[in-house]
Amino acid sequence: MLTAEQLTKRYGRLTAVDDVSFGVRPGVVTGFLGPNGAGKTTILAMLAGLVRPNSGRVLLGGTPLRERPPEARTLGVAIEACGAHPGRSARQHLRILAGFARLPQTRVEEVLALAGLTEAAGRRVGTFSLGMRQRLGLAAALLGDPEVLLLDEPANGLDPEGIRWLRTLLRERAERGRAVLVSSHLLSEAAHTVDEVIVVSQGRVVHAGTIADLTPAGGVWIRTGDPGPLIEAVARAGGRVTPDRAGGRYLVEGLDAPALADLARRARVDLHELTPQTTSLEDGFLKLIGRQS
Amino acid sequence: MTLILGELRKLLTIRTALWFALASIALAALNVLLVSLASGTLDEVAEKEEALGGMPLLLLFFGAVAVTAEYRHRTAASAVLVSGRDPGIVAAARLGATVVVGLGLAVLTTGASFTLGVPILASHQPGPDLTAAQLIPLAGGCVLAGTLTVLVGAALGGLLRNQIAAVVAGIVVYFVAPSLIGTISTSAVDYTPFGSLQVLTGGVHGSAHSLPASALALAGWAAAAAVLAVLAERHRDLG
């Protein structure tokens, strides 16, 4: 479990992170979302112990980071602040890190295979594509098979196969009881991967909860050639109907799709459309961010 | 020890040390050839010693470049994260590893200078040949000066974290500062890093300071810069 408690970071007069608190639970993939400049990277760096907060603290397994600095077995980090020298090969880079962490060199080959980099392991990192560098960053983060994984935009530069690989990897880690915090600006990808989301805006947490909380169900769109009887039936059942003049449809709120189908059948009305209106993660996110600004 | 070994591996798996070794050896060889063959008559021991002094200042830039590369390529944070050690301790290990590689470069550079220079001076210049009693302290001084100069460069790199800034700072410390200090006190110049280096490498004649005194002075400067760099690392962010 990784916990941020009232983290605040100021750079001169600018408050980049303001009183941020949240937890990253084991067995859960937590998405970390926010617009550019929201403070995501600074928060991730504070969680990793690379940036010191002006106030607040980070707890790893219940112990403050200052008392128990993270290491490869407790915290795996793939964020902007952690790089690989372009002149070294991927294998050399990982071997050096394994040496620092006192991990067996066999682990290097394991994570290279896990990241799909075995064949490219002897190549200099400077010749790698962005996607391969992302895989190398992930391999480095996974070296110690850590309890908690912090990843900053890991899907950037990955091809569709790579994104599927990443998604599977994160899910597997969560299923093994590990905690994963993954920042992303690819909301559709986040919707596929994460169980819970933390949304930050202007250095503050503006939402912490499930994806479903961010994408509440809306009404149901209906289209029919004879709307009168159905509208009456909906009103009697307690629903609200809003016509969409341009589209010839009606938005029904307060009743779900199966209930509407039953009402239409009893009123002997043929339905031409019955579409639940859902809020996309993107819509929910933008609504939340818009409300903050 | 694990940290120093890791930092050593870092230095030895990139080409920076190799390029600096080649450049230092080439410059040392060029310097000794030019001075021994083309700078007129060298008939005094001090003049011959000066010809062998080499160019340890290039090693200052090696230290600066090697350490700032850690920040430029963002590899400093990775070492701290996986090792679970204090950033200051990791920085100290990095300086230690840089000094070890610097010692190797200083030995190579001095070796090249002496291997080429001693026979040429003996065959082409008049006056007494340099004896072992004169060559050994000079070689030791050159190696020590080169190694400590690497540490000064590495410490400046760690303090400033920027390659250009660290190189400029090195130039200021070694060349500009002694000139300014010289306007106040001429004798104090011999205690500056450059002044001490000059004594150690035989680059100055008739200095009032002995080799051990100059070695201590340069070691003091290098140690002070290293301590500052380590303390700064402990109190700064890595992200």
TrEMBL record, chain A:
* Single GO MF annotation: ATP hydrolysis activity
State if ATP-binding is listed as a keyword.
yes
Residues of the ABC transporter domain: 2-227
What are the record keywords, sorted? ATP-binding, Nucleotide-binding, Transport
**Superkingdom, taxonomy of origin:** Bacteria
The protein's matches in SUPFAM superfamilies, at most eight in alphabetical order, are given as:
P-loop containing nucleoside triphosphate hydrolases
Q: Family membership, please give it.
A: Belongs to the ABC transporter superfamily.
PANTHER family to which the protein is assigned, alphabetical: ABC TRANSPORTER, ATP-BINDING PROTEIN
Query: What is the name of this protein?
Result: ABC transporter ATP-binding protein
Organism, scientific name = Paractinoplanes toevensis
Automatic annotation (TrEMBL), chain B:
- What is the top-level taxon of the source organism? Bacteria
Q: Which UniProt keywords apply?
A: Membrane, Transmembrane, Transmembrane helix
Mark the transmembrane ranges: 12-39, 51-71, 92-115, 135-157, 164-189, 209-232
Q: What is this protein called?
A: ABC transporter permease
